[in-house]
Amino acid sequence: MAERHKLLLESPNLQEEKLPRRSAKSSTESGYVLSIASLPSFYAASASAPFNVIDIFDKTTLRGVQTLSGHETATTSLRTAASLAGIIQNCLVSSGKDGSVKAWDERSSTPSITMTNPGKKYPLLCCDVSQDGMTVAAGSDLQGEEAVLVYWDPRKSTTPLRTHTSTHSDDITTVAFGPQNVLLSGSADGLICTSNADEDDEDESTIQVGNWGCSVSQVGWIQGVSDPDSAAIWASSDMETFSTWKSDLDQLLSLDIRSPVLHNGRTWVTDYHITTHSSSTSNPNPAIFTGSNEGDVVLLSNMNLSVPDAPWCLHKIWSHGHTGIVRGLLWDEPNETLVTGGEDGKLNVWPIKPIPVENKEDEEDDDDEDEDDSMVVDSPKLRKRERQADDERRGKKARR
């Protein structure tokens, strides 16, 4: 395990939101909110077993407008696809332990497409849709000696295109499509893999394999990375460790996400990683969201996720919104909104400011007092402060 305490700096204009803008309860009342997805006018939130439903909430009022039946046995993941089966339209897609992936038609409260495997019903733990909407992939839990990656063409939903049974040897917990139909997958076997989703031969489909040595719970692509030596993939484990990897799955960073702690002026101690958000439309540095057992959420960033000793920064706190662990989190960038869901069955909507993309000209003006960098992950002031703190931690005289 990585060292317990790492440097966590406070943003020059750290902000705290102490009350959500709007709140709503799951239709199940007592069920956990597990995951959240965004549609143009609605938020969707999946509920835990035994309910397994998907609640639809109006974005403006957060009023519950519809409840989808979800899956017969555990709705395990929830996604929004920009297009599916050649139709360019935002679509809600879910996976379940009933062995199906469903694309939902909000107008009728029933699935418009149900993807199944009639040969063998593998309980599915995760799913994603390719960027062109023509391939759907899902990962199963371990059945006997097999954990399976299943691929569908959503236009031919009753039979999979292919199933791959040897990519992973334990539960496949997370999948994420990248460019060129490359599928990123993570598993309880400790492996992170990239695969060619268009290749029928499983031996030929595997592109790269990285062995983290701990059960992988989430993986994702870091958007806008062109340098082959930079972090291109992030991952988290069920042991609250966080890692970054090059595109060839050479590991760059691995640490206990609970280790960056703040005790200077105010105290923040992370209990768990919620998720990481990366978008080419916002700052290239990923936004890393962590939580406390009391239900508070913070946004952390790291100046260089390719360097193990780079300092961390605390940018914003959202508190007093939940009474327990936060399970789902969505950054709705177009609406500058953060949506959280937790074990208390609540869905909360919070304000969040955008993280501006770094402007190279700003590096020449560290004294610009008009810049609001409370949420700027890569501001000149913060870079200077982090360099000084990093030098002091190494016992050097800070540069001025």
TrEMBL record:
Keywords: Repeat, WD repeat. Pfam families: WD40. Signal peptide: none annotated. Residues 1-23, 349-400 are annotated as: Disordered. The keyword Transmembrane does not apply. Residues 360-375 have a biased composition (Acidic residues). PROSITE patterns: WD_REPEATS_2 (PS50082), WD_REPEATS_REGION (PS50294). InterPro entries: WD40/YVTN_repeat-like_dom_sf, WD40_repeat_dom_sf, WD40_rpt, WDR89. WD repeats lie at residues 68-114, 319-353. SMART domains: WD40. SUPFAM superfamilies: WD40 repeat-like (SSF50978). PANTHER family: WD REPEAT-CONTAINING PROTEIN 89. This is WD40 repeat-like protein.
